[in-house]
User: Fold this.
Amino acid sequence: MNQPFRRIAIEEAFVTQEIADAWAEVLAGGAPHEPGFRKMGETILADSPGTRLIHQRLIDLGEGRLAHMDATGIDMQVISITSPGVQVFEAGLATALARHANDCLSAAVKAHPDRFAGLTAVAPQAPAKAAQEIERAAQQLGLKGVLINSHTFGEYMDDQKYWEIFEAAEANEAPIYLHPRTPSPVMIAPFLDYGLYFAGWGFTIETATHALRLIMGGVFDHFPKLKIILGHMGEGLPYWLQRLDNRYLLQVKIGAVEKMPRLPSEYFRDNFVITTSGVCSQPALRHALEVLGSDAILFAADYPYESVEEAVDFMDNAPIGEEDRRKIYQTNAKKLFRLS
Ligand code: MN
Assistant:
């Protein structure tokens, strides 16, 4: 191994059997409050040899995962709960299942500290308990950040009832990975046909909208040191920054929205970083590098959903400088998560 960097992949998924079983119960009950998740249950999560292999890989926090990493050249995974995590359960069950998942993940990280790091699962539907769990995970479990799967029963975290979660994340220097899931119940209707609810489009619209609500809702004025991570090359937002600023300024001018201390693009540049998960497009990478710079981009493979081989081939052979490659694979992740 003489590559001048370690390949650290930071959006790598796992699940506990307990959470998978509780999902099955929600789906068996018809998931009346979760049309997006129900659609997942009918389609992409339906039983098949492929979904059984994915499940087996998600559950494995040991030898199988390490063997796959060895075979694909991944030196370290930053592991997090897979979508939609515990956000489809009632608050009490969700809180207990998140806590148990964090204990399992922490044990795996402690068994393989040079190969695994982990992000904390929380149940936003119980904000005070979620804040306590962020503190426990940071201070006792050795986890390095938080992952939240976008909306919770159709609600977004610009709602101030969720802000103690941000307070705990900021106080514990825990960046929050805002990970996709299916669009919220009130906007899913036109996404249900043609597979648009899924990762190619609906996930991105959902998550980018959530990110913009955090910016426009003043979250970063209250929590200026809070860091949000967006996957999928920034969920389209880097492409859209100029227009967001332009139309925001028009709305301020006519009195339709309140003026914020910074432009939308400035919040994006100051408080967000992005990852390459699921986007193996050289033009998309070139664009992200041009508008955000190499300090704001981190490598992710989205194991076990995407081809890790393709992600590594994409980043190994990207026509960029070696210093930028090293930052994207290693340096930025070490800094963001304070990895030793
Ligand atoms: Mn993912």
